[in-house]
Protein: HNH nuclease domain-containing protein
Amino acid sequence: MGTKKERTGWDDQELEASVDAYLKMLGLEHSNQTFKKADENRLLREGPLSKRSASSVEYRMQNISAVMEQMGMSHIVGYVSAKNVGTGIGNRIRKILAQRDIEAFRKEPTQASQHFTYRLLEANTPQFSDTPEGILNPNKTSSAAIRYSRARWITDWVLKHSRGFCEGCNQAAPFLGANGSPYLEVHHVKHLAQKGSDRTSNAVALCPNCHRRCHHSNDREAFTLELYTRVKRLERE
Ligand SMILES: [Zn+2]
Ligand SMILES: [Zn+2]
Structure:
């Protein structure tokens, strides 16, 4: 069944919508808030997944659980990991997850060599004339498709604005990403899982070390406070 579904071709927008809905639910679960899987499923099918059945959306969510598990992340309790995630679909889901700030969901810190949180600056990043407005409350937005494309602008803007320097330690990005751009990761200073906004006033470009420091160090709170003084555009939420 799984492979057949893959051949029917979920496009990137459908997969991104699934991943974002998944992360929204996981965020709610992490902050002990309730949500109904069935409602989220229906919402997706009323929007970006209008071509899909309830059971295929459910199955996709189980795929995402499986990939999260492979990445060392916790997953939504209600979505048991699907056993047979095709490599193609698994890789695509992984790639999308790697573009999101999911560090807050990591089960436990891993070694630096096991990085996977790639957020590569795309070659065709648009030119920004103004600071994009962003989203005050990403969890509350109902129009999934619009939210995702706007959210992408925020990460692109933040990466571009950094000019390749970590906003935590001011060092140059430690290496170039696969596309040749300086490798930095976008971090939400108040985590999305804690209802932080997806705006440039809540997002910074960090080197992998500083990013891990924000999530896992024993001085993460003090380090986070320093970010607010160091990066002028940040606003406390
Ligand atoms: Zn740094
Ligand atoms: Zn982060």
Notes: Residues 166, 168-169, 171, 206-207, 209-210 surround zinc ion (ligand 1) (CB under 6 Å).
